[in-house]
Write a structure and sequence with these properties.
By secondary structure, this protein is an alpha/beta fold. The chain is built from eight helices and five strands; from the N terminus they run E-H-E-H-H-E-H-H-E-H-H-E-H. It has a five-stranded parallel β-sheet with strand order 2-3-1-4-5, with helices on both faces. Helix 1 crosses helix 8. The two termini are 14 Å apart. The protein binds thymidine-5'-diphosphate.
């Protein structure tokens, strides 16, 4: 038996993180064993790499390699064993984020990303990806309201985030069955209803 792998994606400020835990609880109520995790991160080593990735200036290729390094560890220690036990994994970001941020946002060659993706997870892809989409100015307003220190990605200029958004939408366009676009401007209740509907029809 194989479990289900669901990922959440979107530009910074799309508000996806608040829905991750809620979806996991809903699935648990339906009797599933659900692991909630995130990238970069999800393991002890991955969380250390996350600290570096979010705050230490580095070369674009170093950044990309570290994203995939953290991902390899995450797959080996958490994601693959859980799926093999028939459990669910709900993950806040995965490889679509690398295509959107390092590829779309920073301009890294797509062929390099494909090589790394193939090395790190072969043919494994999320069963379902929920892409939270909203206009950039709304996302920027939400980030501006945050009282915490902004990370290296949140500090990027608007044109960077616009490229990230477009890269995400292009990926959704090329994989419409796997990647479902959620209008992140809807109310929390409306978004939850839509998530329930999409997950129930695609994964349960
Ligand atoms: P996230 O956990 O969504 O940040 P927050 O907890 O502040 O909402 O993601 C951290 C940042 O890492 C986000 O700005 C996107 C970036 N990122 C990449 O650039 N590439 C990747 O492959 C991943 C997984 C994340």
């Amino acid at each position: 038996m194989k479990g289900k792998f669901i990922t959440f994606e979107g530009i910074d400020g799309a508000g996806k993180s608040s829905h991750v835990e809620w979806l996991a609880e809903w699935l648990r109520e339906k009797g599933q064993i659900v692991h909630v995790t995130r990238e970069p991160g999800g393991t002890e080593l991955g969380e250390k790499l996350r600290e570096l990735l979010l705050h230490a200036p580095m070369h674009l290729e170093t950044e990309t390699l570290l994203m995939f390094t953290a991902r390899r560890e995450h797959l080996a220690r958490l994601i693959e064993p859980a799926l093999n036990r028939g459990e669910w994994v709900v993950c806040d970001r995965f490889s679509d984020a690398t295509y959107a941020y390092q590829g779309g946002g920073r301009g890294l060659d797509r062929a390099k990303l494909q090589q790394l993706e193939h090395w790190v997870h072969g043919s494994l892809q999320p069963d379902l990806t929920l892409l939270f989409d909203l206009p950039l100015d709304v996302a920027r307003e939400r980030i501006a309201l945050a009282s915490r220190m902004l990370d290296r990605f949140e500090q990027e200029r608007a044109d960077f985030h616009e490229r990230v958004r477009q890269a995400y939408l292009e990926r959704a366009h090329s994989a419409p069955m796997r990647i479902r676009v959620i209008n992140a401007q809807l109310s929390i209740e409306e978004i939850r209803k839509e998530l329930q509907h999409i997950v129930a029809t695609n994964c349960l």
